[in-house]
Specification:
Helix content: 25-40%
Oligomer: single chain
Distance between the termini: 57 Å
Number of strands: 27
Strand content: 25-35%
Structural class: alpha/beta
Number of helices: 14
């Protein structure tokens, strides 16, 4: 059976990538294709929409966070049983880590995977000028192949025909169709981007509307024709040698409305290493699952659900008891907030949290830290320095504590060696930091925590 793969990229943020991507995912799925979605960059919310549509986890691929080997490994690993691989871009096609190189960009990923790009442009208020935009993007980097164009926000069929004629005449790149402006389709925003899929009212109806529009006005047959390629063969990766080495560990993963920012390849890696992932809800479950060896609390929106988290006293008590037994907890961003004594939300309301870490977090009116960074752990934490790449995006700050930070974060240590800030706080075997980490950036960071779980488990067995 044929295999198809392509990248959906925009000229800029707001061009309509997520709406059109979800529509294409839905339309192809309805045709009977098994579709594997991917998202460029460190985004958690867009992949949740992808996953909702196709019923399988969307994966993050990022050429700055990850090596090209890891990018190619994860791409191939996750589409072996799929018919179509669809990669949604980030920001504009060439936007990445800096202003002079394309690392971290959609273009960089498309080249690493050798996939054609379908460029999504905003056609509102334009006619022949659209051709100049497409021409500029197509010639900016000759190694990045733009194989087709989809025009968003057109007023109708006649408007699209004008745009199509101009673009194809001037660039030779085929227009694959269009999407009209539709007030019925509106994905709400929150302070960190789109509202997560599980919180959007009438999401199924909205996505059905988008899928019907795509099926009607986008030539999916031509899209598949220009994107037919060979399915990538599985490749080797250093992590494979560790598979099964941590068999027997039970890893508790916090997962509900308040904590759902995870790279799914992180969770898959934990299981491939031999662990069992046991999911629990800090909001709704009475207590943590039994016999856990390690707890992983990802990011999310604990500030939005702070009252509900605070009300669940039995869950908080069970986490405190787990921590007091010397077992490891690793928390990122929203997870860090949950480990502190309290969260103060945007309205100034203070809600008590677990208090495992001293100090409190409070929401602020602006982003505190945003973007990529390089992390270097302290030797006091890990014995020897571990370095990995990470990403931050948060509006809260952690104050009123006395803990010494265990992270040193740089924007680019290799060139300027100028520290961005310090973070990463530990009490016993509980650790929290704002940085979101893809474990394939440096698997040793995950191995460190699983080794901590083994050590704690051995000590617990000795005391029995």
């Amino acid at each position: 059976m044929s295999f198809y793969g392509f990248v959906l990229a925009g000229t800029h943020s707001g061009a309509g990538k997520t709406t059109i991507t979800t529509g294409i995912l839905s339309a192809l799925s309805k045709r009977g294709y098994c579709v594997q979605p991917y998202k460029t960059g460190p985004d958690y919310i867009d992949p949740a929409f992808h996953s909702f549509v196709v019923g399988r986890k969307s994966r993050n691929l990022d050429t700055w966070l990850l090596s090209e080997t890891s990018v190619r490994y994860l791409f191939a690993e996750n589409c072996q049983d799929a018919d179509v691989a669809v990669v949604e871009g980030v920001m504009g096609l060439f936007d990445g880590f800096g202003g002079t190189e394309d690392i971290g960009s959609t273009a960089s990923l498309a080249k690493a995977l050798n996939l054609p790009v379908v460029l999504i442009i905003d056609g509102s208020g334009m006619a022949r000028s659209a051709a100049a935009i497409v021409h500029g993007y197509a010639t900016f980097d000759p190694d990045c192949k733009i194989a087709g164009v989809i025009v968003n926000k057109v007023s109708g069929q006649k408007h699209y025909e004008i745009l199509k004629e101009a673009i194809e005449h001037s660039t030779g790149i085929p227009c694959l169709g269009y999407v009209s402006t539709n007030d019925q389709i509106e994905l709400s925003s929150r302070h960190l981007g789109l509202v997560p899929a599980h919180e959007v009212a009438n999401l199924e109806e909205q996505l059905e509307t988008v899928a019907q529009m795509i099926e009607k006005t986008v030539d999916l047959d031509q899209l598949l024709k220009i994107s037919e390629t060979e399915k990538p063969s599985p490749i080797q990766h250093e992590v494979i040698s560790k598979f099964g080495n941590y068999k027997g560990l039970r890893v508790g993963v916090a997962l509900d409305q308040s904590f759902n920012f995870y790279y799914w390849d992180n969770l898959d890696l934990i299981e491939k290493l031999g662990c069992e992932c046991v999911y629990f809800s800090p909001m709704h479950d009475e207590k943590i699952p039994e016999n856990l060896d390690f707890i992983y609390i990802g990011g999310g929106f604990p500030e939005v659900f702070a009252a509900k988290l605070s009300e669940n006293k039995t869950m908080i008590d069970s986490l405190r008891d787990y921590h007091q037994k010397g077992k490891p907890i690793y928390a990122e961003c929203g997870g860090l907030m949950y480990l502190t004594e309290a969260i103060t939300n945007f309205e100034g309301k203070r809600e008590t949290m677990t208090g495992i870490l001293p100090g409190e977090t409070r929401m602020t009116g602006k982003l505190k830290h945003f973007g990529y960074n390089e992390v270097f752990t302290s030797e006091t934490l890990t014995g020897e320095e571990i370095a990995f790449k990470a990403h931050e995006f948060h509006r809260s700050e952690y104050t009123g504590h006395h803990l010494k930070p265990e992270y040193s974060l740089y924007k680019n240590k290799g060139s300027e060696k100028e520290i961005l800030w310090h973070c990463g706080y530990r009490k016993g075997r509980a650790f929290g930091a704002y940085a979101h980490v893809h474990f394939y950036s440096e698997p040793q960071w995950l191995y460190f925590w699983l080794d901590q779980a083994i050590t704690a488990k051995e000590k617990s067995n000795e005391s029995i």
